[in-house]
DNA sequence: CATGAATGAGCCTTCATTCAT
DNA sequence: CATGAATGAAGGCTCATTCAT
């Protein structure tokens, strides 16, 4: 094989393919997710990944991936695939807009509960590798991937009048950061009740987005 | 000299001493802040710092600091000192509690505007070096340093009835993350109007903390 | 197949077979010539050759050739075949000896003009791979292949009295190096007028080989 | 120290400093010369050099030199320094121009006899590293360094009428290649009588540069 | 005739640190 | 207070080659 990247873009995404299957690639990606989640991006080396995956040598990684950047890209793609198919199942049938934000937050929290390592790794890679990898993942830009959806949703809600006045970009970023914060908290304390945390967050942003009758300024 | 962390803990804080003075230590710490802010924690090495500071060899760093961890600790301390003295000037004279949150957010945003590198480095080190450094900084725990104050303030406000019902820990973490998010945004776009961003955030959390009359659930 | 050098020695030469045919072997050899000509012997790897030839994996090379040495041997053979058949066409019908040297130089220059890559690769491989490959190519020794003919021709000329007194080995080596020098120059400057260069060289060695009436010493 | 290059340019040339002194740098450069001369540029690695020099680890090289390219540059510079000072001693006191070419050839041959490894390494590095290192060595361009002097000398001779008509560039390149050829020959056969070879070459180019009365064409 | 998968050895480089003065 | 010199460990990557189908 000797390298991939093209191959990854050709078949790797859009469908479920990625880390899930029992390919070598998949095995390596899974080990990468676990490793990054545990020791962080910068301490993650081929050697550490190989250890965890029980492979013979680091050469196996550079055989299947064009390099570290390529491995991380593929890992990112795999995580996003997993996340998309997870969220796809739970997306509510066009509920009233007002509840959509709550649903959005809660489903992402649910993903976090189900795949805490994926979430942590997603943030780790995204945080560190930007600039090296450049922004584009799957043709989408990192920032757009993370806050773009939220922004569009909020904007739509404002136009429909279910939300009050606020800066969409700021609100979206704040939600994004809040969600990432849960991942951080969960790492510190694996016993954390993410369910409850999610509902609390939902309430918080429910109030923050609602049109306030009066405002102390 | 063969200084190390002891010395840092002995004299380094409480007073203004740190990066500010024209000591070698201060010079190194300043270069560290600038370097971490620019290229991130994990790419920051003694070599890079030495380059920026125009020092002769990395030996100078290991002479003044016990090691990388010690350097980062000292840098963190220096940043926090700077931050404390900056915020100390702007802390309002016991205004009514309701406005305190807004003041708190806006003053931190003001610091971010004045010292964007410090803020970015603070987050970078805190994010990456935990575990290596362990939590304690200046005898205080990292988490407590960053969200503890907020928690206490929110709790007090709730008891005084100026805030509604919400989970203090969640709210504090959300505010913390929102604030860090500004730093991230500012890094991506140095033209960002942090002032406006701060006011938007203040409004957002004003609404989120207020006692809501009814709630769509 | 598991072909190797035996096969190459069996069929590879004497007949036109080599890189010219539309075999896999030929395709690989052509790519090798182009690659070596462009990036030099030492930077040429199976990977680079495969890239240029558009093959699926390096396995194809090690399938058709016993190893790197074998590939280079075969490439050398192919180049020499091409060269021989090219020169065969242009060799003058036993002209007077005096003009033979000039003809020899000019025809080799003509080959260089027609196949610059072949020439460059010939020199590259010959220069770098000696020792690895050992001297023998096609049963002939590298040195003999390159300067032997010249030596024999010069020697013959001396016996016939058309040349003056000089050390045949030195003169032959000098001509050889001069010819290789054209290849070098051509690489640096593809616009070079090799025709003119060749005539200049012919004149130069005409004078150098002629019996000098008097000599300033 | 941690890197050099600047340092090398500052002190390294112009004076005798280089490989000669008993510095670590000098020791490494000497080992590099010997290694390249023996196994060729492309097989020369830090490991091989370290072996020969009896150093503790390859780290010593990357401590004293910025990288492989830098090491090779410094080695080149050192060789050229040695060569310059050697030739400086033997350059004749403005003899008649006609003998200058002979003197030039013979003195370079003498250098080759005295420092065969230096010569071989000079050519090896020059041949392989061009493009990587770029042309400039000591502010001079590789090509100019090697054939420029010859060209200027030949040109001057022509103007003074001691030489006949010929293309200066072609003649200079041919001499250069002839000289390099001696190095090649010497490598193959260390017993070679370079003195005699040199005189033969001198005679050869004496005839080639002299104004020929008539020319068989 | 061809291919995918795997592999051990080697490369140069960077890292934080220690030994002496 | 400072510096030059040295160093072992580890990093990512490329190389030619072999195994099995």
Which stretches of chain A of 5+ consecutive residues score pLDDT under 50? 5-18
Topology-level CATH name of the largest domain in chain A: Tetracycline Repressor, domain 2
Q: What does the average pLDDT of chain A come to?
A: 84
Name the CATH superfamily classification of the largest domain in chain A: Tetracycline Repressor, domain 2
User: Which protein chains make the most extensive interface, counting residues with beta carbons within 8 Å of the other chain's beta carbons?
Assistant: A-B, 36 and 37 residues
From the coordinates shown, what is the CATH architecture of the largest domain in chain A? Answer: Orthogonal Bundle
Radius of gyration of chain A: 19 Å
Number of strands of chain A: 2
Oligomer: homotetramer
How far apart the termini of chain A lie comes to 63 Å
Please give the count of helices of chain A: 10
Number of domains of chain A: 2
Please indicate the percent range of residues of chain A in DSSP E strands (runs of 2 or more): under 5%
Q: Strand order across the biggest sheet of chain A?
A: 1-2
Structure class of chain A: mainly alpha
Quick rundown:
The structure is a homotetramer of 217-residue chains. With 217 residues, chain A is an all-alpha fold.
């Amino acid at each position: 094989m000797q390298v991939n990247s093209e191959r990854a873009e050709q078949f790797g995404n859009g469908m479920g393919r990625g880390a899930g299957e029992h390919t070598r690639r998949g095995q390596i990606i899974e080990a990468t997710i676990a490793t990054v989640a545990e020791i962080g991006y910068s301490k993650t080396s081929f050697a550490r990944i190989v250890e965890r995956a029980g492979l013979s040598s680091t050469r196996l990684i550079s055989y299947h991936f064009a390099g570290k950047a390529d491995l991380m890209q593929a890992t990112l793609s795999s995580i996003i695939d997993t996340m998309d198919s997870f969220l796809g199942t739970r997306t509510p049938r066009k509920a009233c807009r007002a509840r959509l934000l709550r649903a959005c937050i809660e489903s992402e929290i649910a993903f976090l509960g189900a795949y805490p390592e994926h979430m942590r790794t997603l943030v780790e890679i995204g945080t560190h590798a930007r600039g090296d990898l450049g922004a584009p993942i799957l043709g989408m830009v990192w920032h757009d991937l993370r806050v773009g959806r939220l922004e569009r949703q909020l904007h739509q809600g404002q136009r429909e009048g279910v939300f009050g006045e606020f800066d969409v970009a700021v609100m979206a970023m704040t939600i994004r950061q809040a969600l990432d914060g849960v991942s951080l908290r969960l790492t510190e304390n694996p016993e954390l009740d993410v369910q409850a945390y999610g509902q609390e967050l939902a309430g918080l942003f429910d109030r923050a987005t609602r049109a306030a009758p009066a405002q102390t300024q």
